[in-house]
Design goal:
Radius of gyration: 13 Å
Number of helices: 5
CATH topology: Serine Threonine Protein Phosphatase 5, Tetratricopeptide repeat
Strand content: 5-15%
Number of strands: 2
CATH architecture: Alpha Horseshoe
Distance between the termini: 35 Å
Number of domains: 1
CATH class: Mainly Alpha
Largest sheet: 2 strands, antiparallel
Strand order of the largest sheet: 1-2
Shape: flat
Helix content: 55-70%
C-alpha cells in the first residue's frame, strides 16, 4: 500500500487515511468546523501529492475551494477552484473539471 509520512511527523498516511483526512469535516457547519475543514484538506493535499493520487488531489482542491468560499475567502477559493480544474484535467477527468465552480 502506498504510504507517506504524516505531515505532523507521527507515522505514515495511506490513500484511505488521506481520504478520511479530506472528508473528516465534510458536511460540518459553523465557522470553526469550516476552518478545521480547510486545515484538514490542506493536509490531505500534501498526502495525495506524495502518493501521486491525481484524482484525490483534484477532489480535495475542489472541496477546499468550497470551504474557502464558506469562510469568506473568495480570492483563495477561486485559486483553489482553478487548481481543482487543472488537477482534474491532469487526472484525465474533463467532466469533473468542467463542473468546478469559481
Amino acid at each position: 500500500m502506498n504510504r507517506v509520512e504524516n505531515v505532523h511527523g507521527s507515522g505514515t498516511v495511506n490513500m484511505v487515511q488521506a481520504g478520511r483526512i479530506d472528508s473528516v469535516t465534510f458536511g460540518a457547519s459553523g465557522p470553526s468546523r469550516t476552518v478545521s475543514a480547510i486545515t484538514a484538506r490542506k493536509q490531505a493535499l500534501e498526502a495525495y501529492q506524495e502518493l501521486g493520487d491525481r484524482h484525490g488531489k483534484a477532489r480535495t482542491w475542489h472541496n477546499l475551494a468550497f470551504a474557502l468560499r464558506e469562510t469568506g475567502q473568495p480570492d483563495q477559493a477561486r485559486e483553489a477552484a482553478e487548481q481543482a480544474r487543472q488537477a482534474y484535467l491532469q487526472a484525465h477527468d474533463p467532466d469533473s473539471a468542467a463542473a468546478v465552480e469559481d
